[in-house]
Specification:
By secondary structure, this protein is an all-alpha fold. The protein folds into 2 domains: 205 residues, no CATH class; 93 residues, no CATH class. Helices cover 69% and strands 0% of the residues. The protein contains 12 helices and no strands. Helix 2 runs antiparallel to helix 3 and helix 5 runs antiparallel to helix 6. It starts with a helix and ends with a helix.
Length: 307
């Protein structure tokens, strides 16, 4: 049933995904101990709108770069995976980081066209730089940028220097802002790296989340290598970038500052792409329906039992 609906790319599918997201939002509003009032709605509706926008960006990236076939599986999984984070509607910072990472990846993955190369590298790094202002460990995502340069446009040495220029621009503007508001630059959290693993799984919900993510990725990882020879060279590169994006996200989850919550959100886009490709490979639609239904049930359980 579900695979039949999202098995073809249709505008109605995006509306259905927005509907699912709205259900998560309503469940979040009524499942928390916090008071239900206009102030809370005014604070969290913008996050909902940003998540809808993130789905639009994901849909655009997937279809524009043929990360899946002509279907909306990746969009569907990107939506239900948001349900794994009931508190995400309270975390506008992480949602902003998520969107900036998507913007950056969109520019990186199009380097293969060999058009406006330096501009794309600059844009991608600029987006990463803006995300770094929320948490300095986001700087890890420059790995994806340099991998894109290596895979697509490594012959021109100037391409390797563009990320440095872009980061310098962002950090320079931020320093000017700090000086303007008379804040101490050296004591700003952006310039303080605490090089240690800050990961902790203090709740059963987070442990369950990591088990689900690990299981889904492991299945996709095995299938990817089994089917590796069937992919085109362009798709191999795209999948490699997506996998590095995923592993960079894992590294960020391990090192992110303790104040950053729901950091696993950054894993959802590559995981949605992996799951979309997995569903394409399953010829028995009943099995596909069972997988999608189970994941939907899990996502709703995360909202029913948010702690």
């Amino acid at each position: 049933m579900i695979t039949s609906v999202f098995g073809k790319s249709k505008p109605i599918n995006f509306i259905l995904c927005i509907g699912i997201l709205l259900v998560y939002f309503v469940m979040h509003l009524f499942s928390e101990d916090k008071a239900f009032n206009l102030d809370r709605i005014a604070a969290e509706v913008p996050v909902l709108l940003l998540l809808v926008f993130a789905l639009f960006v994901i849909d655009f990236i997937v279809k524009k770069n043929d990360l899946t076939q002509q279907n909306d599986y990746a969009l569907f999984f990107a939506t239900i995976f948001i349900g794994f984070f009931p508190a995400i509607f309270e975390n506008i910072q992480m949602v902003c980081i998520y969107i900036l990472i998507l913007f950056a990846f969109r520019r990186i993955i199009t380097l293969g066209s060999l058009r406006s190369v330096k501009r794309k590298i600059f844009d991608a790094t600029f987006f990463i730089g803006c995300a770094v202002l929320f948490d300095s460990w986001i700087l890890l995502y420059t790995i994806v940028i340099y991998l894109g340069i290596l895979l697509y446009v490594s012959s021109d040495y100037r391409n390797w220097l563009v990320p440095i220029v872009a980061l310098t621009v962002v950090i320079g503007l931020f320093i000017v802002y700090l000086l303007f508001v008379e804040q101490n630059v050296l004591t700003n959290p952006l310039f303080q790296f605490d090089i240690k693993i800050n990961y902790s799984a203090t709740s059963y919900r987070r442990i369950a989340l990591h088990l689900v993510i690990t299981l889904l990725f492991s299945i996709n990882f095995v299938i990817f290598f089994l089917k590796y020879k069937t992919y085109s060279s362009q798709k191999k590169i795209s999948f490699l970038l997506t996998k590095v994006l995923f592993f960079t996200g894992i590294t960020y989850v391990l090192f992110a500052k303790n104040i950053m919550q729901n950091t696993e959100l950054l894993l959802l886009f590559p995981l949605a792409v992996f799951m979309g490709n997995l569903l394409e490979r399953i010829e028995n639609k009943r099995i596909g329906d069972i997988i999608t239904l189970l994941l939907m049930i899990v996502s709703f359980l995360f909202n029913i039992y948010p702690k």
